[in-house]
Amino acid sequence: MRADRLVATLLLMQQRGRVTAAEVAHELEVSVATARRDLEALSTAGVPVYPQPGRGGGWSLVGGARTDLTGLTASEAQALFLLVGPTSGRSATETSALRKLVRALPETFRADAEAAGRAVVVDPAGWGATVRTRPPWVDELQDAVVRRRQVTITYDGRSRGVSERTVDPWGLVDKDDVWYLVAGTPSGRRTFRVDRVRALTVLGTTAARPDDLDVAAVWDEVVDEIERRRGRVAATVAVAGPLVRVLRDRLGRHASVLRDADDGRVLVRVSSHTARSVAEQLAGFGAAVEVVEPPEVRAELAALGAELVGRYATG
């Protein structure tokens, strides 16, 4: 319910002129740490919210107290909507709060603000490989999505090599700190990892975008498609309880808890596109992970072990 909280924080600041994190926490019935994070997020996103240190300090909205949000500039309104934009599970309360915020904005800002609210999808479930550094192109791509501008990207497709292509940016996805661009191309919808973009040029030409586009729904389709390709082989493994979280952090959606085993360990389902790939993902855990089934994965682990012994054994 972060969207309605952020809007309520802004309205509270406009009413009082200056607030402390403790006052926001009391009014909105959240922790002081949560209130402080919300205030810092608003400020970082470009909304004109600034801290004033010292005795009698707090947080204030530049321009003083106002009765509505019409004092926001176009870029500030976009920044706010990017911050509280769609996640895969936005509640009805959040949706209602954003609609109220749209009505409070100057009419000339509304279309871009709504576009910003649809520009980014947050998917917290990882796929195992997490990039913690924000790619340099995210802000420019967000702007291109909001303004409906085509972009030319130089993209490293790994096995397919580096290529240059012009695409219609539809939306961005933050998947556990790994950013993806969902875009239209002459060959249909495509998904690009933003950290593999080597160069970016925003063009003056208008990007084509389906009128009924729902980026969150499109992303669900992308995830389902990738999961089908990556999860063709599944293994059941037995691990000690503390290792379950490590497996899930490392493998993302490809590690799911099945049930407790009779010996006090936990049974976990691990999947990938081949038996060899499953074995490679588990080999680093050594004897801490026991593959219960299938035999194909056990055989691949044995083969990997034999290869390592053959390479590194010392007489």
Describe this structure in words.
The chain is 43% helix and 27% strand. By secondary structure, the chain is an alpha+beta fold. It folds into three domains: 2-117, Orthogonal Bundle (Arc Repressor Mutant, subunit A), CATH 1.10.10; 123-213, Roll (SH3 type barrels); 231-312, Alpha-Beta Plaits (2-Layer Sandwich). The strands form three sheets. Strands 4, 5, 6, 7, 8 and 9 form a six-stranded mixed β-sheet that branches. A four-stranded antiparallel β-sheet has the order 11-12-10-13. Helix 1 (2-16) packs parallel to helix 5 (92-104), helix 4 (74-83) runs parallel beside helix 6 and helix 6 packs across helix 7. It is extended, with a radius of gyration of 24 Å.
